[in-house]
Every structure is written in C-alpha cells, then in structure tokens.
Amino acid sequence: MDSPITIEPAKPEDAQALLEIHAAAVHQAAAPYYSQEILDHWSQRPITSERVARVKQRWIENSDHRIMVAKHNEQVVGFGFIDSYSRLQGLYVHPDYGRRGIGANLLVALEQAAIVMGLKHLQADASLNAEGFYRKQSFDVIKRGVHRLSSGQEIACIKMRKALANHEQ
Question: What is the separation of C-alpha 29 from the centre of its chain, rounded to a whole number of angstroms?
C-alpha cells in the first residue's frame, strides 16, 4: 500500500461503501463457512437506495452507535460498529485489504470509543470465519450459539466477550 490507512468516524456519505464492503466480506470471506442461502440473508443484493438510507439513519446517525471506518486514499476499505449495550455489532474489511491489520486497528478504535461511552466490555456474536481473529484480539469464547439476522434467519456463531481497559469481567 502506497499510503497509510486512516481510521475515523463514519459519515453519512460512507453508507453505500459500508454496504458494499459488507457484501464483499460476507460473500467472499464467509462463503466457506455458510450456505448460499444464509449468505444471501446476511447480505442481500442488490444494494438499494432504501438500504443506504437505513444505514445512514439506523447506524451512522444513531447516537447509540459508534461506527468507525478505515480509509485508504479516501476510499472506505473497512468498518466496524458498536452500540451502547456493549455489543460489537460488526467488523468488516474488504477482502482485497484483508490480513493487513486493518481489522485490528478498527477494533482498537472501537474499544477506545467504548471506553469513552463508559462500557466495561464488548460482546460479539462472531461468525465462524472470524473466531480466530477475535481470539487473537483477546476475546474469550463464552459459548457456541446462533445469531438472528435482521431477516429472521439464524446463523451459527460464537458468543465472545472482551473486558476493556482495566475493567473486571
């Protein structure tokens, strides 16, 4: 990479890119772990203007969420978001930018935001393909379970948790 990756809060104009990265990550990185039906529920195509508007309203402009984006040459290449209930709702990096530390850097920024929000831990429903990543980032496995997608589809996941900065679990 010829220029550094920057991490910053998401802006409303990033919504389309977030959906595109989500689709690429789900349909490429998670494909060996889940059926096509589950992938299609998890990240529906095509990306419509209604979905972009929902991302702006429900994620980016929602004061209960903190969304951070990773940018390379001003292009969004990854994102992650947490909510005020200590949930790491998602962390996605475009497959073309995988294995470069971008996810770890996004997670550090999200953990810092969580601490500012007064959160003591983060919990995640990690996808099967992301378990190793979260273990490397000091998340503990609580149990194997299921996560219900917004479509109602259930997918296998690993319930994980990480204490934040000198807080007890």
Answer: 13
Nearest partner of 88 among 43, 133, 27, 56, judged by Cα: 133
Preceding peptide of 32 cis, ω within 30°: no
Task: Quote the tokens at residue 146.
Answer: 């299921």
Kindly give the parts of the chain with pLDDT less than 70.
1-2, 166-169
Predicted local confidence at residue 166, as pLDDT = 58
pTM of the predicted structure, to 2 decimals: 0.92
CA dist., res. 88 & res. 114, Å (int): 10
Output phi, psi for 109, to 5 deg: -65, -40
The pLDDT value given to residue 151: 84
Q: Determine the 3-state secondary structure of 17 from DSSP.
A: helix
- E-assigned strand segments in 62-148: 65-72, 75-83, 88-93, 121-126, 140-148
Three-state DSSP class for residue 54 = helix
Question: What letter represents residue 121's amino acid?
Answer: H
pLDDT on residue 168:
47
Burial call 105-116: b when 16+ CB within 10 Å, e when fewer: bbbebbbebbee
Nearest to 102 by CA among 31, 32, 20, 6: 6
